[in-house]
């Protein structure tokens, strides 16, 4: 796991009350028991944890029951890139 995936695993472990060592890159949000409220909560947690802003439409496409930890890591990384200024 890369650093973003490790951070996500910790965040998901805390949110879903699952052992972090059982959350791997291929773990889906459905595996963790995600429902629609969890999707909204995850969006807010990702924004806070990674200091990014997520458009509701982008969140609806990315934060789905089928999304894996690796999918979310790529999404977070892409959002960080979009918000970067230099």
Automatic annotation (TrEMBL):
Residues 1-80 form the Carrier domain. SUPFAM superfamilies: ACP-like. GO terms for biological process: lipid A biosynthetic process. This is Acyl carrier protein. It comes from Loktanella atrilutea. Keywords: Phosphopantetheine, Phosphoprotein. GO terms for cellular component: cytosol; membrane. It comes from the Bacteria. Gene3D superfamilies: ACP-like. InterPro entries: ACP, ACP-like_sf, PP-bd_ACP. Pfam families: PP-binding (PF00550). One of its GO terms (molecular function) is acyl carrier activity.
